[in-house]
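Let's practice the habit of predicting before peeking. Look at the sequence and jot down your guess about where helices and strands might fall. Then scroll down.
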Amino acid sequence: MSGSSSKRVLLAKPRGYCAGVDRAVEAVEQALDQHGAPVYVRKQIVHNVHVVETLEARGAIFVDDTAEVPAGAIVVFSAHGVSPAVREQANDRQLRTIDATCPLVTKVHHEAKRFAREDYDILLVGHHGHEEVEGTAGEAPEHIQLVETAADVAGVTVRDPDKVIWLSQTTLSVDETMDTVRALRERFPTLQNPPSDDICYATQNRQVAVKAMAGQCDLVLVVGSKNSSNSVRLVEVALQAGAGAAHLIDYSREIDEAWLTGVETVGLTSGASVPEVLVRGVLDYLAERGWESVEEITTAEETLTFSLPRELRPPRKQTQSPVAGS
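Done guessing? Here is the structure:
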């Protein structure tokens, strides 16, 4: 086993759970604690197989449509957000709703409503069919057009080229989004930017961390699910930044031994909806095969946290008097 000592893992930081995912998963756990099973969840609370299966085992029932939720039951809206039409359906069926929409997605919804009120044409950069895009577009369907890539820009038509703004899905590749925006700006020179950055801080941070190490890596493993937009983007970013190869996996058992042939440096990261236990599983797998040296590559420190949805917060105590014997 000559040369085995040069085997190493570069571990990206930040990785894994963002504040919005942490809040959404905790919202389902708290709903189960406070109300008991079952608690219904519209769509996957976050795009991660392991998280969904773990919550299902505790009594969460995931549904595609609020019509599947029994009248009067509790339903949690996922981190990706919902359109006003979905809220109305839930209201009509007297469902007790808990809104776990990520506050950064809610911000984009507010921007969409504001610019629709001001009668702008809104060009939403995002992926067709993604739940977040459906929710945002539903806020102002008559004002919003979806633009998936720079290649779509030629087909965009607006009423007044001087009243156009772009917004974006929060989980996109920063570089690809800016390519699309550049193409839009060539067509519409007075195109306005969102009031503040729409691509979420965690998505950007995870991409920056991968870029910092990808050029040194023979192989990059991204832990994340195939329907997780930000995880899929990390694979693309790794390859664009010079990784020899890059693969998306949910679990260490999905690693193909052939990927490791001739590999010395493995880069490891995880998408924003991935619990750290899955990353540790990959580190254990690699350590057993000689990749025991682990170096963390840190490009940012994340301290942001979001409070729980208000429906789950404890009621404010009326009195401030100290409790006897406390």
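How did you do? The chain has a mean pLDDT of 95.
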